[in-house]
Write a structure and sequence with these properties.
Blueprint lengths: L2 H16 L7 H6 L8 E2 L5 E5 L4 H6 L6 H12 L8 E4 L13 H18 L3 E5 L1 H10 L9 H4 L4 E5 L2 E8 L4 H4 L1 H15 L3
Parallel strand pairs: 2-3, 2-4, 4-6
Antiparallel strand pairs: 1-3, 5-6
Amino acid sequence: MPDTQKTEKLAQLACQLEELTNSPLYEFRQENNYHAVFGEGDAAAKVLFIGEAPGKQEAIKGRPFVGASGRTLDEMLAAIGLARKDVYITNVVKDRPPNNRDPRPEEIDLYTPFLTQQLAIIQPRVIATLGRFAMEFVLARFGLTEPGQKISQMHGRPLEAEAEYGRVTIVPLYHPAVALYNRDQRQTLEDDFQVLKQYM
């Protein structure tokens, strides 16, 4: 699929998300003048990042990872020679849950088709999950879930999976927020990002 066609398809999908009035998070979006956060980046990116759900700053601006965690993500990308425009960044859930609570099962179910279609359109070679929630969701989706899996054991470890469009490598990563509070975790995150370099 040509890049322009991918861009158009993503734009159409984003419009559908804006009109998702049956979402249990739609009213909260409207009450706070928030935006749905579809995702952004290169429509033909080799590496796609998936987080949990938008926070307040993301919902205000309608863009993923634009707060402090986003700055850390940008720094991690720069360290391996990438810019935000070179990758694609999105979330499992596309609207902000109240008080940054965990998304509920019915919310996850409602937004999952959007993520599924994003993957089908972009067809990344690598899916990098950001944080425990995104890791658990993606591993379950690709049938890679095992009892007792913890992000402390899985981070930075490439896993091979089969997507509808072919082989894909899944790399679980800590959420960039961990680097804001723990210097050791920042180094771990930097080291784990180096794993992505081989796929560029």
